[in-house]
Amino acid sequence: MDQRLSLITLGVEDISRARCFYEDGLGWSPVSATEDVCFYQLPGLALGLFGRAALAEDARRPIDGTFSGVTIAINEPSREGVDATFAEALAAGARALKAPEPVFWGGYSGYFADPDGHVWEVAHNPGSVIGPDGATTFGG
Fold first, then answer.
1. How far apart (Å, rounded) are the C-alpha atoms in residues 39 and 29?
2. Which of helix, strand or coil describes residue 89?
3. How far apart are CA 123 and CA 65, in angstroms?
4. For residue 98, what pLDDT is reported?
5. Is the pLDDT score of 140 beyond 60?
6. What secondary structure letter does DSSP report for 50?
7. What is the pTM for the complete model shown?
8. Backbone phi, psi, residue 9, to 5°
9. Residue 100 near residue 110, CB atoms below 8 Å
10. CB of 7 within 8 A of CB of 46?
């Protein structure tokens, strides 16, 4: 199997509400969208939004409301970038889970939940490099 990630799909309760968060709140632009699904091209992969019930049916997995242990991360080149991105997410309607702070691994990070409860980390990792295209390289 190739070592790559192509798409992260989030099951959302309301596509319109989710799109407002990502587009109006965060300023992202979709590359493809219908009433039922929406895709955003990111550096090296894409983020998809799909109705939560339809995604559960498609995957044949119940959504039971517990934390799945999965987070999505946005890495920033500085602590100031983390603070700015975190504030932007909150202004767009995200809920703060943990304010950005120094962390045990030598970086700086915080967590927020989008309107559907998906957990996002915003982090500065001094061991990573953010390229001109936004792609993050670790150990670099």
1. 9
2. helix
3. 26
4. 95
5. no
6. E
7. 0.85
8. -115, 130
9. yes
10. yes
